[in-house]
Amino acid sequence: MLLVMGDTAMAMELLKTYINSKINIDEATLDTILGAFENKTFEKDTPIIKMGQYVTKYYFIASGGARIVIETPEKEITAWLIFENKFFTDLESLRSGQQSKAKVLSIDRTEIFSIKARKMHEFYTEFPEWQKFGRIIMEDAFLDVVNSLISFQVMDAETRYLEMLKKSNAINRVPLKQLASYLGITPNSLSRIRKNI
Q1: Alpha carbon distance 36, 117 (integer Å)
Q2: Does residue 1 carry a pLDDT above 60?
Q3: Domains of the chain, with CATH numbers?
């Protein structure tokens, strides 16, 4: 779905549709929960989560994308890519109360909805269906991680790239250098792979 940036009502509809695709929830309860979300648009390469930040929120990408970046003394590594209709957070920072060890940057212009973890947890207690939603998004995130780990164990870079393309062509919005970093190959190798398909 093409989202006209800045159209908060349309973006909120995307969040609403996503939630309704995961659980059965009555309109009044959903409206209460949605009222706790904040909306913000991030321009390209803008930090959504900064390294060293104390993370206190869950985030939902209505449009655009983000990459989780780890900095080493030698280079910056794109460790993960996240696109539309996904929730994310820095779970380690959120649960431990420690500073984030990575940063999350917008890939392109990205519309985000965020909800404070404290509020999310209050809703878990208040609304059993929301607790189910929280479990489902955590399971989805875990499956994404497992599938990614398996792909790195059993597939070469070209196959991983082709598999990513099958799931979503959103990866074509990721700059070559960042996508190559995520795949664990050089930008030249990725260019060759793209020419061969």
Answers
A1: 11
A2: no
A3: 8-117 (2.60.120.10)
